[in-house]
């Protein structure tokens, strides 16, 4: 929720706009990526809700955080951090939610942003809709072949569907682009499927120990805006 101090600092007209949007569920379609975006409005919305939502998530007040995130997405449907936070909240066991409408709106606002498809893919991946997740990651790569996060998460999706050669291929792209998380590589190593040079392992039964806990790397942990 917006603090009284934050509201008091808003210009009268902006205060009225924010209150009206909150009270009546008004949808204001602002493209976060548009060169013509209203940066003053963006700053006001973020200052009132973005940091607050992150604090609530850290405190595990997920229901309250969700309200702040929904407010952000009401103004900027494809806000990258807003989408990331919504996926994070909805991945909590007691906060499962259908985000199809969220991503439909985000993509309709601007269908040419790779990061939006990566976020959608992570959401779909998390609810085990692997085929759709793979398509979302592939769409992101078609838009931006240098998207490290798209390649990394696509590799995880291929790994989860036992498509090991493709998982290796995407892992190679991700690490060449600077991916730091070891989870994808380590999971392939544990399965004896890691092929760093694109060839078959010299010992198919050999595995290398993964870093403690790295096999639990979640797709969402690799999410950044590209």
**Overall average pLDDT:** 81
How much strand content do the residues show?
A: under 5%
Which stretches are low in confidence, meaning pLDDT under 50 for 5 or more residues running? 1-16, 19-27, 199-226
Order of helices and strands: HHHHHHHHHHH
Rg of Cα set: 20 Å
The CATH topology name of the largest domain reads: Serine Threonine Protein Phosphatase 5, Tetratricopeptide repeat
Query: How many H/I helices?
Result: 11
Task: Domain count, please report it.
Answer: 2
Show the helix and strand layout.
Layout: H1 4-8, H2 12-24, H3 39-58, H4 62-75, H5 80-90, H6 100-109, H7 114-126, H8 130-143, H9 148-160, H10 164-176, H11 183-190
Q: Quick summary of this structure?
A:
The chain has 226 residues and is mainly alpha-helical. It contains 11 helices and no strands.
